[in-house]
Amino acid sequence: MKKASANDSARVITVNRKARHDYHLHDRYEAGIALQGTEVKSIRAGRLNLADSYARIRDGEVFLVDAHIGPYEQGSRENHEPKRQRKLLLHRREIRKIESRIRSAGMTVVPTKAYFSNGKVKLEIAIASGKQAYDKRDAIEREEARRAIRSHL
């Protein structure tokens, strides 16, 4: 049995906490992401922000929209554009499955987590439906109750 080395394990880059607060998350998928060289270096420096980003399906391909990857400090004039659309790499059957799910009203695709897996940047995306204000209040109350119980133990 092979031991898991430091390279094999997934190292989390960022988590989109806003997605968990604003949406009910359903099916999750792991997607690769097509990046330029300076984008990878910038992500390794921790300059990735997934808040307010989402995925859009166009012509049978999935694109990440509004994700911000800060410019690479040591980059030249060939540095990347921070908010450009980036192609997500998924299997065709996964794309069809996602597309059929989001056709129903109120469903969207949001990134929930970015991490390194075997040296490659991976993105966890989830099919999500929007939460109403009362759903958010219920979730906050449950979390506060959990914290209160933990603090008394």
Question: How would you portray this structure in words?
Answer:
By secondary structure, the protein is α+β, with helices and mostly antiparallel strands. The protein has one domain: Small Protein B, Chain: A, CATH 2.40.280. Helices cover 29% and strands 37% of the residues. Strands 1-8-9-2-7-5-4 form a seven-stranded antiparallel sheet. A two-stranded antiparallel ribbon has the order 3-6. The chain is globular. It starts with 10 loop residues before the first strand and ends with a helix. 22% of the residues are buried.
Keywords:
153 residues; alpha+beta; Small Protein B, Chain: A; seven-stranded antiparallel beta sheet; 4 helices; disordered N terminus
Brief summary:
The protein has 153 residues and is an alpha+beta fold. The chain has helices at 17-22, 37-44, 92-102, 133-152, and strands spanning 11-15, 23-33, 48-49, 54-58, 61-65, 68-69, 86-89, 107-117, 120-130.
Shape: globular
Count of DSSP-assigned helices: 4
- Arithmetic mean of pLDDT: 85
CATH fourth-tier homologous superfamily = Small protein B
Helix-residue proportion: 25-40%
Strand order of the largest sheet: 1-8-9-2-7-5-4
**Radius of gyration of CA atoms, rounded to a whole number:** 18 Å
CATH level-two architecture: Beta Barrel
Count of DSSP E strands? 9
Low-confidence spans: 1-5
CATH topology: Small Protein B, Chain: A
> What structural category arises from helix and sheet content?
alpha+beta
**Percent of residues in β-strands:** 35-45%
End-to-end C-alpha gap: 40 Å
